[in-house]
């Protein structure tokens, strides 16, 4: 069988796993999704993804659990353990600590995001080895974006610690009652993390607001996204492929459209987010201000 056909079948498995993280996801079941014998599937996945299928599934389940611990404080650890497929919180805690070197209770309070990021690299590496297709996008459109006041937490420094800033921003957001149900979520992207040294990286975490931000201990301030004509491209899928979508937007689509970049940086509108939806169902609208 040609490698491209194998990759197509394994991609189908990866998408199935993303959409069914709350199920058992046995090797027998996943081999049926791939239309392989169990032996052939186990060997093919390890060969192409450079990780055992059981380890891949476990890491994905623990990744979602870590998001729930950090960003869904209303969920009990026992509930998160069951959701990840563990019979009790004790077995979940042992597995979680083995991977992230922190028990769930400590991770919930003070997560070590840099170590977390390193431990989850095999997931993104496996996907890049198997999923050769470009991320899903909609057609490029152009809109007049209205001036929008935003509450902003400025993340400065290592992009691997952005989730720490996200935690801080969510805590502020909950404190003032500015939930995503009544306020849009944005990111202002000043730098490419692949072209900027970690210490110089800049990224704003934002929420739309109708009022100036009161002085606070979280470091949240008031800014404005100016009114601008913008090119908009919808990225559907994981954040790890959003860089490819942005590159295509700048290197091809805007050039083909004969457009000139404006002065304000690119920004994202986060329409849906993990873990509320699966990673492959995440929707991010990419806005590029134009002249």
Concise summary:
The protein has 291 residues and is α+β, with helices and mostly antiparallel strands. The chain is built from eleven helices and nine strands.
List the helices and strands and how they pair.
Blueprint: H1 3-19, H2 27-34, H3 38-49, H4 53-71, H5 77-83, H6 89-100, H7 104-109, H8 113-119, H9 121-130, E1 136-137, E2 141-145, E3 148-156, H10 162-176, E4 185-189, E5 202-208, E6 221-225, E7 228-236, H11 242-256, E8 267-272, E9 283-289
Antiparallel strand pairs: 1-7, 2-7, 3-5, 3-6, 4-5, 4-8, 7-9, 8-9
Helix pairs in contact: 1-2, 2-3, 5-6
**Full CATH superfamily name of the largest domain:** Regulatory factor, effector binding domain
CATH topology of the largest domain: Multidrug-efflux Transporter 1 Regulator Bmrr, Chain A
DSSP summary: helix tally: 11
Unreliable residue stretches: none
Beta-strand content estimate: 15-25%
Helix/strand order: HHHHHHHHHEEEHEEEEHEE
Please give the domain count: 2
Report the major sheet. Answer: 9 strands, antiparallel
**Structural class determined from secondary elements:** alpha+beta
CATH architecture of the largest domain: Alpha-Beta Barrel
CATH class of the largest domain: Alpha Beta
Distance between the termini: 51 Å
Average pLDDT score: 94
Shape: globular
How much is the radius of gyration in Å? 20 Å
In words, what does this structure look like?
- The protein is 44% helix and 19% strand.
- By secondary structure, it is an alpha+beta fold.
- The longest helix has 19 residues, at 53-71.
- The radius of gyration is 20 Å and the shape is globular.
């Amino acid at each position: 069988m040609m490698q491209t056909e194998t990759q197509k079948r394994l991609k189908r498995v990866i998408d199935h796993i993303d959409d069914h993280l709350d199920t058992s996801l046995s090797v027998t079941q996943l081999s049926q999704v791939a239309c392989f014998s169990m032996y052939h599937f186990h060997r093919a996945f390890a060969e192409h993804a450079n990780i055992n299928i059981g380890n891949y599934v476990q890491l994905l389940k623990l990744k979602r659990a870590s998001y729930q611990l950090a960003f869904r404080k209303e969920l009990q650890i026992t509930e998160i353990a069951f959701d990840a497929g563990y019979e009790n919180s004790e077995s979940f805690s042992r597995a979680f600590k083995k991977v992230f070197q922190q028990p769930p209770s400590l991770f919930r309070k003070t997560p070590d995001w840099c170590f977390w990021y390193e431990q989850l690299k095999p997931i993104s590496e496996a996907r890049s080895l198997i999923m050769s297709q470009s991320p899903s996008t909609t057609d490029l459109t152009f809109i007049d974006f209205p001036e929008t006041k935003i509450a902003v937490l400025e993340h400065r420094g290592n992009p691997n610690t952005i989730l720490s800033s996200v935690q801080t921003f969510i805590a502020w957001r909950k404190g003032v009652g500015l939930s995503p149900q009544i306020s849009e979520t944005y990111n202002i992207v000043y730098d490419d993390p692949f072209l900027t040294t970690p210490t110089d990286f800049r990224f704003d975490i934002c929420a739309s607001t109708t009022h100036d931000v009161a002085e606070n201990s979280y470091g949240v301030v008031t800014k404005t996204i100016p009114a601008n004509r913008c090119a908009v491209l919808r990225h559907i899928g994981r954040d790890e492929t959003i860089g490819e979508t942005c590159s295509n937007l700048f290197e091809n689509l805007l050039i083909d459209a004969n457009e000139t970049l404006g002065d304000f940086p690119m920004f994202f509108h986060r329409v849906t987010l993990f873990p509320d939806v699966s990673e492959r169902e995440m929707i991010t609208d990419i806005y590029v201000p134009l002249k």
